[in-house]
Design brief:
about 35% strand, homodimer, globular, four-stranded mixed β-sheet, mainly beta
């Protein structure tokens, strides 16, 4: 059994979600041991929400769950890489395919790239 | 100018390095503001080493620097994605292309995947 190192991050570690087909990096979130175990058991990505302080079954509200195709761990056992099938095509709660939709130029300026796949106001009924 | 959120991580945030051509995720490390500024200024990846407590110019010892092709930031401005050209072909200090070279099966067992590109004992003269 893999022993993951949750200590360095005070009980959590970063988990990268990557589209298993395109290789696009979709998001970075965190897992505690419970989220990791739930991910293994269900085959769907579970994270630990730092802001809400609770387990977060990704896609629970929006329906955009992440079906886990492969789990990788790095050499220090303190970071996880999930290769996922992103249901609905958008991982970002703002409606973009990827949360990494802001490009930084060499002067530190920011430009939004990528197009919205859904309108978050409709999905989350804000 | 982009305002990155270093607060949530007590002055650091996670930075993913991804091969700009293949899309392979190479490693996850951390940046503080200084490492971020050095990365912008030099075009080569700089991180904050949590274990050594110092700025880490990736490849300084091994020669395997990361030439930054693109910098992306996520929707919460608390995680960075670097698309890099990995000089020497290996990002991992153990000699593998990627630090994520351990696959976890659904029972939590671990298998090493990928082949070593260099012998770390020769590079680091341990």
């Amino acid at each position: 059994m893999v022993q993951l190192d949750f200590k360095k991050g005070d009980g959590i570690l970063p988990a990268i979600a990557q589209d298993y087909k395109s290789g696009k990096v979709l998001m970075l979130a965190y897992m505690n041991d419970e989220a990791y175990q739930l991910t293994l058991q269900t085959g769907e990505a579970h994270y630990w929400s730092r802001t809400r302080g609770e387990i977060w079954h990704k896609g629970e509200t929006s329906g955009n769950i992440q079906v886990v195709r492969e789990i990788l761990v790095d050499c220090d056992h303190d970071a996880i890489l999930l290769k996922v099938e992103q249901v609905g095509g958008a991982a970002c709660h703002l409606g973009y395919e990827s949360c990494f939709h802001n490009k930084i130029d060499k002067h530190g300026g920011e430009t939004t790239i990528g197009e919205r796949i859904f309108n978050p106001e409709r999905i989350y009924k804000k």
